[in-house]
Amino acid sequence: MRIAVSGTHSTGKSSLVEALAARLPQYAMVAEPYEILEERGYVFGHPPSVEDYVVQLRQSLASLRRWSPNVIFDRQPLDFLGYIEASAGAERFDLEAWREPIARAMRRLDLVILLRADPRHDPVWGHEDAAFRLAVDDALREIVGGDCYELCDGVEVLVLEGAWDSRVGKVLERIDARERASEA
Predict the structure, then answer these.
(1) Would you say residue 121 has pLDDT above 80?
(2) Per-chain mean pLDDT for the chain
(3) The pTM of the whole model exceeds 0.85
(4) Residue 36: which H helix or E strand, with range?
(5) Residue 56: which of 76, 33, 83 has the closest Cα?
(6) Mutual orientation of helices 77-86 and 130-140 as an angle, nearest 10°?
(7) Which of 112, 136, 139, 160 lies in disulfide reach of 8, CB 3.0 to 4.6 Å?
(8) In what order do the strands lie in the sheet with 71-74?
């Protein structure tokens, strides 16, 4: 299976990817585009601009184009649409120009796990960017969870919220159920 973990920042995406990789040794992990680009020397604005999110979107598309089974991606293209939508200057982004490459990349995924921001369980709600985090979370709920741009056709979406310690088990149950169904 090709799995992507999605959500606004500080919801435990990278921790979930690492926990899943530890439990699923046959799966490779792909770091989030921000980390890949930063390693290559890309300098992001603080806060990142719409253009910075477009660069990350390009990297996400490139990562998904490489074919290998059993991969867990930290983020997927729709994450960056959520960040763009929640950012100042979003009107500069032309979704129509990106629709087909994004849809094609999304079809290369089997499962998207959307982690919802939850003030009851997230330790970073007092930080200055809490409003932006919530705006991104709301955008992702519509874009990924509601498929408002019709870019998730055929991709299963598992929405997780609540206590972090229950998330790994829920994902493993879903993976197991999908594998059993494909064997039947």
Answers:
(1) no
(2) 92
(3) yes
(4) helix 33-39
(5) 33
(6) 130
(7) 136
(8) 28-30, 71-74, 2-7, 111-115, 156-160
Q: Work out the pLDDT band at 122, boundaries 50, 70, 90.
A: low
Burial class (CB in 10 A: 0-12, 13-18, 19+), 55: middle
Residue whose entry in the numeric block shows the structure tokens 């985090």: 133
β-pair partners for 4: 73, 112
Spatial distance between the Cα atoms of 184 and 69, rounded to a whole number of angstroms: 19
Which two structure tokens, joined as six digits, stand for 38?
Answer: 């930063």
Alpha-carbon span 170 to 99, nearest angstrom:
31
Burial class (CB in 10 A: 0-12, 13-18, 19+), 48: middle
Cα 139 to Cα 19: distance, rounded to the nearest angstrom? 26
Contact 3, 110 (CB under 8 A): yes
Rounded to the nearest 5°, which phi and psi values hold at 2? -115, 115
How is residue 125 annotated by DSSP? T
